[in-house]
Design a protein that fits this description.
By secondary structure, the protein is mostly helical. It is built from 3 helices and no strands.
Length: 56
């Protein structure tokens, strides 16, 4: 599935995700770390932040 569609299915702004991804790709990475670049890795901290904001 394309990255943009995966973002949409996970309620992630595709443009924000791609900006984050390109920032991460600017730094050398190991192939084993590729999971850290997928949309749900980007979404996890956002969901945690939203949960804290909603609780306040």
């Amino acid at each position: 599935m394309p990255l943009i569609e995966t973002c949409k299915l996970n309620a992630i702004d595709p443009e924000a995700y791609l900006a984050w991804l390109f920032g991460k790709l600017a730094h050398p990475r190991r192939l084993a770390d590729v999971d850290e670049l997928l949309p749900w890795a980007y979404a996890a901290p956002l969901k945690a932040t939203r949960a804290v904001s909603a609780a306040a």
